[in-house]
Specification:
280 residues, alpha+beta, Fumarylacetoacetate hydrolase, domain 2, 7 helices
Length: 280
Amino acid sequence: MRIAVIDSRAKIVRGDEVFDIAGASAGLFGPDAQDVYDQWKGFLSWADSADLGPGAAFAPEECDSPVPRPRQIFGIGLNYHAHQIESGLPAPATPLVFAKFVTSVAPAIGELVLFTDQVDWEVEAAIVIGTEARHVDKANAWAHVAGVTAAQDYSARDVQMRPVGTPQFSLGKSFPGYTPLGPVLVSPDEFENPDDIQLSCAINGRTVQSSSTADMIFSVGELIAYLSAILPLLPGDVILTGTPSGVALGMNPPEYLRAGDQITSVVGDQTQRHVAIAQS
């Protein structure tokens, strides 16, 4: 199953075509994507045998975020072994969790405004919750996942790292456009192994990050178990599962994004493309 949002309407993507969910279901599901996630099990049951009718051509550049208004967005820091070593910090004993804010959500293709001169890239596999998770065992965690999508956790490092000694991650990672998602949501059954998804990031054609989610310190199951033991994870919630090594902050000296840079991020078979522009 693949879900996209185009012109604020949830769509099923099959091959090179998209099908309007609300139209095909006679209003039973959609058109808002959140309505689909809120009824995820019923939606899947319907979609398995539904006659979707005529489709339209699929164009990734027309896609909004497949989760336009998540109620909760969780970021996970230092969750790849190589990135933890690159950072020069000890491996965390429990997940390092921060929040991102919904106004940072953006489409997978477009412009990235450089609000400061220290904006960094962090390609990530994002998990979208399909059914409410509360006190979930890690072995059953994937049953609560609607799907996986590509993400970038763009980060203004100067804002993220202040005040000195007690950094506050959330604001530096929540400028408008700093959480692009998509272009589509891919259900876990479409992956040969959802715990081993390839991801990469290139700047102006030069690959700077290349890894697999198999290198994560805390797996998706462990993250969902940890978070759901503290608070309920709601349908449509997003978990950015961490980034591999190769970020600008780890370079000596750091090579932050500049206006005109082209950022290409790949998670599985999903590709994001952004062009960095200066703040007007």
